[in-house]
Amino acid sequence: MNVSPKFFGASAPVAYGGKDAKSPLAFRWYDKDRVVRGRRLEDHLRFAVCYWHSFCWPGGDPFGGETFLRPWHRGTDMMALARAKADIAFELFRLLDVPFFTFHDVDVAPEGASLAESVANLNAIADLFEQKMASSKVRLLWGTANLFTHRRYMAGAATNPDPDIFTYAAGQVRAALEVTHRLGGQNYVLWGGREGYETLLNTDIKRELDQLGRFVSLVVEHKHKIGFKGPILIEPKPKEPTKHQYDFDVATCYGFLQRYDLLKDVKLNIEQNHAILAGHSFQHEIALAQALGVFGSLDINRGDDLLGWDTDQFAMNVPELALAFHDILKAGGFTTGGLNFDAKIRRQSIDPDDLIHAHVGSMDACARAFLAAADMLDAEALTMPIAERYAGWADAEGRAILAGQRSLADLANRALAPGFDPQPRSGRQEYLESLVNRYV
Ligand code: XLS
Ligand code: NI
Ligand code: NI
């Protein structure tokens, strides 16, 4: 199986050309070496191309099949196809000049007739990745195991009523975690694809949550055993594929991690589309994760406000991204996390170079938003008004209340004193919204 390296029309890596670049394929905002607040843009944004949407998805939808007709999807020698797919993947990484990629076990290597065979396939492709990574600059942001596509997982993996399925999933995760470790992965992700339920008529929620807690604890134990330093990341999503997913949103995941004593080792991978499916904004989920100390990484994409499913479109909305990045930058930026393009081109985007345009366009949207966020932060445009709004809590009385030095009676007595008449102040929302618009 030979896929021509000339699959893409472009052959030179996309370069930064400035805002007025003439070429349709140029970065207009993403100048990777530009230093912002002490770090290069490339090191701030930490872009990753994901394997599954870009190289595995054939363009189908519930009403029709494949539209992309990728050459590496045609043939019977599955390992040869996997190698051809890897060639194309690394060619795209080179053309985009991205620092990271991400994958599920089954994205990169075919499932065998047994778990042993699947693990051997995965390790053979990991050997190939090791070679390819040695001669390119791309690194692994995270790896994960697909515990949701195969029919064995139709009733869940960790939350399956059958402990043998739990065991099979454990086997898959051990292999994926070890391969992630071997390839220098910076995080390991667990997205609970089918960890949820369709009907309570056949579901014992308490038992399933205990199973999930046990499973994640096993992964954490193994991570320590093999010396994997990165965090385990759980990815919240409220629904799809199951009607109700246990990792509903950031708040729910936090409660889960606290209950099963996992807060020390597990952080969250937050996705825009999942946030809006949960009825939240992207910024809300990020801000809450930061407030709770569980922020890890981002799956960068965008959902459609009019559709109730995970459309996984490429993120292009600069104002929305700017507010998200503002909060990330305010807290010091990414550590092991980054921006993973969990995004797929539309079904009609059948030209090979559509893959390049999608990533370049979204990288530019992110860079433009990031620069706006840095400017807002430098000018304290949003941080100052917030600090002023809560200034009372920095005063002696405010601090004493929070430090537990005032009883309810103390406060009541103070409130009853003659002349005590606090006045409300404006929340200034429209002023602040207009302020943001000056930057984006
Ligand atoms: C699906 C999830 C998935 C995870 C990785 O909705 O976003 O793509 O990111 O399993
Ligand atoms: Ni995702
Ligand atoms: Ni998703």
From TrEMBL:
<dbReference type="GO" id="GO:0000287">
    <property type="term" value="F:magnesium ion binding"/>
</dbReference>
<feature type="binding site">
    <location>
        <position position="271"/>
    </location>
    <ligand>
        <name>Mg(2+) 2</name>
    </ligand>
</feature>
<feature type="binding site">
    <location>
        <position position="310"/>
    </location>
    <ligand>
        <name>Mg(2+) 2</name>
    </ligand>
</feature>
<feature type="binding site">
    <location>
        <position position="274"/>
    </location>
    <ligand>
        <name>Mg(2+) 2</name>
    </ligand>
</feature>
<comment type="similarity">
    <text>Belongs to the xylose isomerase family.</text>
</comment>
<dbReference type="GO" id="GO:0009045">
    <property type="term" value="F:xylose isomerase activity"/>
</dbReference>
<feature type="binding site">
    <location>
        <position position="271"/>
    </location>
    <ligand>
        <name>Mg(2+) 1</name>
    </ligand>
</feature>
<feature type="active site">
    <location>
        <position position="107"/>
    </location>
</feature>
<keyword id="KW-0460">Magnesium</keyword>
<dbReference type="InterPro" id="IPR036237">
    <property type="entry name" value="Xyl_isomerase-like_sf"/>
</dbReference>
<feature type="binding site">
    <location>
        <position position="235"/>
    </location>
    <ligand>
        <name>Mg(2+) 1</name>
    </ligand>
</feature>
<dbReference type="InterPro" id="IPR013452">
    <property type="entry name" value="Xylose_isom_bac"/>
</dbReference>
<feature type="binding site">
    <location>
        <position position="299"/>
    </location>
    <ligand>
        <name>Mg(2+) 1</name>
    </ligand>
</feature>
<feature type="binding site">
    <location>
        <position position="342"/>
    </location>
    <ligand>
        <name>Mg(2+) 1</name>
    </ligand>
</feature>
<feature type="binding site">
    <location>
        <position position="312"/>
    </location>
    <ligand>
        <name>Mg(2+) 2</name>
    </ligand>
</feature>
<keyword id="KW-0963">Cytoplasm</keyword>
<dbReference type="GO" id="GO:0005737">
    <property type="term" value="C:cytoplasm"/>
</dbReference>
<feature type="active site">
    <location>
        <position position="104"/>
    </location>
</feature>
<keyword id="KW-0479">Metal-binding</keyword>
<keyword id="KW-0119">Carbohydrate metabolism</keyword>
<protein>
    <recommendedName>
        <fullName>Xylose isomerase</fullName>
        <ecNumber>5.3.1.5</ecNumber>
    </recommendedName>
</protein>
<dbReference type="GO" id="GO:0042732">
    <property type="term" value="P:D-xylose metabolic process"/>
</dbReference>
<comment type="subunit">
    <text>Homotetramer.</text>
</comment>
<dbReference type="InterPro" id="IPR001998">
    <property type="entry name" value="Xylose_isomerase"/>
</dbReference>
<keyword id="KW-0859">Xylose metabolism</keyword>
<keyword id="KW-0413">Isomerase</keyword>
